[in-house]
Amino acid sequence: MTELSVDHLLGIKDLQKEDIELIFKTADQFKEVINRPIKKVPSLRDITIANVFFENSTRTKLSFELAEKRLSADVVNFSASSSSVSKGETLVDTINNILAMKVDMVVMRHPHPGACHLLAQKVDAKIVNAGDGAHEHPTQALLDTYSIREKLGDIKGKKVAIVGDILHSRVALSNIYALQKLGAEVTVCGPKTLIPQHVDTLGVKVDLDFDRVIQNNDVLNMLRVQNERMNLDYFPSNRDYVFQYGLTQERLNKGKNKPLIMHPGPINRGVEISSEVADSSDAIILNQVENGVAVRMAVLYLLASKLNRN
After folding, report:
1. Alpha helices, H only, 10-73
2. Residue 93: its pLDDT value, please?
3. Which is the catalytic residue, given 135, 137, 158, 181?
4. Active-site residue flag, 137
5. Which one of 4, 43, 81, 217 has the fewest beta carbons within 10 angstroms of its own beta carbon?
């Protein structure tokens, strides 16, 4: 495969295994670029990309912006909080006004699931989903799986546990899809109240015993407890959560298994993961951040190659 089978990156669910492999192969080349003294290539020199974020984001927005600038694209940043959206303008009207300024691609984060899919049907531009509600976050899953592949050689046959707030996490869903397409065995673990009903229909294993999960898996992807999305008390207290599901060095030392430790960030240090573990040699959290730029460069480059420039 030399080009993506999709015209937009709306979710991992829409991708074929070959699409993911093509993105990884392209990211390998861009990772070499960003480790050179001159970290820029002219690949998207004539392309204009708008970053449209209807939710606050520091890490994802910065990563996309850096990826775009490394590719020499022209970049426009749009913040919904200071826009006409707050005055009642519709999403499609807002984006069409941006496109009228001759924007080729839109990277969008939105609080409502499906917003990117709606946009892809309504506007003439390539759309990249940077997170839509609690639905999907495809580039995070791509950089996570890319990081596992980089460290463990292959993802097929590996056992990966996603631990924590599965219920509110778009990262969890996208990771489940990506890992399964690449042949991994996926387990979800966390408080019963934060495990979605019927999640087992996705083909994942559910195991609420965190200590057992640590011993049975090659990778632990520790998710942030998303207090901002919670309108109920899903567990008694942070202290109780740490006791049951906090990843500490003491907990890791109980058994012989030394899993790879991941976290999509930002980290609640001392809650889902201790500082000692986050900063240890078993954690690849900063590798994920570095790989995020290369993977997003790959996604933007591959989608831009499908633009109709007539």
Report:
1. 17-34, 59-70
2. 86
3. 137
4. yes
5. 81
